[in-house]
Automatic annotation (TrEMBL):
Domain Methyltransferase type intervals: 71-171
Keyword Zinc carried by entry: no
Protein name: Methyltransferase type 11 domain-containing protein
Keywords: Membrane, Transmembrane, Transmembrane helix
Molecular-function GO terms, alphabetical: S-adenosylmethionine-dependent methyltransferase activity
SUPFAM superfamilies in UniProt: S-adenosyl-L-methionine-dependent methyltransferases
Superkingdom: Eukaryota
CDD domains: AdoMet_MTases
InterPro entries recorded: Methyltransf_11, SAM-dependent_MTases_sf, Thiol_S-MT
Pfam families for this protein: Methyltransf_11
Amino acid sequence: MKCLIKTVFWLLSVFVGFIAIGLGYLKVNDTVREKFFARTMNAFSNENDTAITNIRCNQVLNHASVHGHVLEIGSGTGINFVCLHNNTRIKDYIGIEPNIHMHSYMQETINRWQIQFPVRISGVSAATMTDIESDSIDTIIMTFVLCSVPDPFAKQILLEAYRVLKPGGQFHLIEHVLSDPNIKPMTNSFQKLIEPIWTIVGDGCRFKPIVNYLDEMKTIYSNVEYENIELPVPFFIIKDGLKAVLTK
């Protein structure tokens, strides 16, 4: 029995050791971490998840809201083309994705959906979109991206979005957020506990009070509306979400 316990303990120690080494390597090597995240996102991006797709397509990226010259911030592997591919109101589309290892997966998605409108993929930072003219974009979309943007760049992205939007243009976004400690204290505490590991595996993703950024934008945009929602996901730590519309 003692021999069995020692063997199990040794195996667990080796397993934990390998995980620690792997996380440490991901933390210090940006290229490996970005490749790992791109492959993970491609593997787990499920276009057939009807619950989350319903929120994406019908509540955030519906055809009535997304039109004209469209800019997506953090286009990733192209998961949102499940909502956009048959939108005849889109004139053209620019996808901003700094993680260049996502681009090949996105191109596969474009080919699979047989996208008809012109598409351009850019690897620039959304905080400095110098290749996009001011007042040139009708609709900006962003889904589950701002959580991965470190300060002060998160605020800068919202300001850059304002610059490139046409007057009357809209910015539609959805995010998972830091749970309210007054409503879900245990979830909030657990989010903070695992955030150091979550940030490494999620390529910078953090549990953030996104609403604070939006409140700051109320003095910039002509209108800022947001709503707290519960995301239909199996992991309780990312169930709390927020959807918003910012109008220039």
